[in-house]
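MODEL INPUT / OUTPUT PAIR
PAIR INDEX: 1
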Amino acid sequence: MDLSIVVPAFNEEESIAQLVDEIIDVVDGEGYDWELIFIDDGSSDDTWREIQKQHNANPCVRGLRFQRNYGKAAALHTGFRASKGRVVMTMDADLQDRPKHIPEFYKMILEEGYDLVSGWKQKRKDPISKTIPTKLYNGVNRMVSGIKLHDQNCGFKAYRREVVHNIEIYGEMHRYIPVIANSAGFHKIGELKVEHIARPFGKTKYGLNRFLFGLLDLFSITFLTRYSKSPMHFFGFWGLLTFSVGGGVLFYLYLMKLLGMVGVFSEYYIGDRIPALFFGVTLFLLGVLLIFTGLLAEMIGRTSLDRNNYRISESLGIEDQA
């Protein structure tokens, strides 16, 4: 199959029909062999009913329905596993992404050899409460991750099939798929300027907490991509450093006490060194804790974690995922 388009949807009943029509106009016009996979992330409105209608009208429109709301990362992970296309694309269901850009993404992957192409909403049609945090987030992201994308969190992306079938996303890690892909060895990452329009229906599902949690997730994914296979290298380094400094302070105090006892420093009084004593003990114990944390992380890292086990209640055209 040429193209799979994965669309997470949460309470987007008003947008589904128009989005499907716009996508079909583009992909049929290009002559692609395609599939459109909706992941209903536990919607409480009639989103699933709309997806069913579209599937009945065109079997290339497929769907999976979560038993409850798991989040966008879960929806993307499940959609990736179900996809069959040589090129896999993702779009949001809110009609802010324009399907007319699909052929451009497709060519960048197959003809220009990119592993991943991210959309760049250069002129965003969002409220200032969303655009300013987004700019700050992207700036910090570029600085920490080293991946020079203007809009790393844009949901409009394209991937080579090998990418989405060799990475794992969970929690809120959908924001950092380029970072995860890069760490997995898919280094050719590009971006494409895309048109962005104001949301015609409903309201955004994200608030200020998205920005705050996003920064925490950024540091998490940076740590995981660099040290997931060897956490002891991180914890052990800082553990040995603090252990050594703390041990050095305690040895110095012990030496001064010993010399004071034999009369070399007759004026020495341990009470004058209480802050240094606390400092040395704290660093010494912190170093021990960090080293043991590294050992525990190594042990946990060697166990298998079933993080992506999601309950699917219904399936349309993807029988093996039911």
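PAIR INDEX: 2
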Amino acid sequence: HAGWCVGPRYIASVTPFLAAAVAFAWRRVRSPWALSLITAGLVLPSVFLNVLSGAIYPHYPEQYDNPVFDLTLPLLGAGYVPYSLGWLLGAPGLWSLAPLAAAVLAAVSFGVGGPDQRPRRYWLHASLATVMALALLAAQGRYGRKPSAAEAQATRLVRAVWEPAPRR
């Protein structure tokens, strides 16, 4: 279950050990390009899920098995957008999240291109990593697609207390 708050609290303690393992494997692998492709393909969905969760509604009720796909994305689709820099600047609806999206895209674009920075190889690497990420997200999005009665009740509660009210 998702718990009540999104965050790295469960993985933070193991991160140094994972980083050491990746660094060790990186030196021994015959194709650093392939390893960086796999790494980027796994990091992109993580960034997407965590940024979306943290920016939209990070306090998931425990009823959800798959909260990003069962609560966050449906909320966005229905016009429930939180206060943000874009909102402050007067951007309507989903457009209010454009500054956040631009900042995240700029940040991940530096790492998704792989070890070879020649433009053609960069775009090939970035495209393959993105395809891998989309495949992983599509597979995850299929999990728990039929909401339970408890999830439907939790969704009604979240919508009832949402601030600012969605623009119709």
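PAIR 2 NOTE: The chain is about 60% helix and 0% strand.
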